[in-house]
Design a protein that fits this description.
The protein has 89 residues and is α+β, with helices and mostly antiparallel strands. Helix content is 36%, strand content 30%. Strands 1-2-3-4 form a four-stranded mixed sheet. A hairpin with a 2-residue loop joins strand 2 and strand 3 (21-30). The longest helix has 16 residues, at 43-58. The radius of gyration is 12 Å and the shape is globular.
Length: 89
């Protein structure tokens, strides 16, 4: 995973390998997302949050069904339980 800090968010390039299949995704994490679901404010904290989020997603759908580009905040629109499961605080 590559985490790139931007002005008011982070852009994360994620590669998911499951068996012989590889998918690539770009996820935007806002400061509000990190405050809501994260456990810090560094790029490493963003990486941990995105990894937990992908684990959550992969438990519910195949990697090929995960959007290629999305903002982390859209996940609860598809999975209402995300907020209560992912929240650290």
């Amino acid at each position: 995973m590559r985490v790139q800090p931007e002005d008011d968010h982070w852009t994360c390039d994620v590669r998911v390998v499951v068996g012989d299949s590889t998918t690539e995704h770009t996820v935007t994490v806002s400061a509000a997302d990190l405050e809501r679901w994260g456990d810090g404010s560094s790029s490493a904290d963003v990486e941990r949050l995105v990894m937990r989020s992908f684990k959550f997603l992969l438990e519910r759908e195949p990697a090929g069904s995960i959007l290629k580009t999305f903002q982390l905040s859209v996940i609860p629109r598809y999975f209402s339980e995300f907020d209560s499961i992912i929240r650290i605080h």
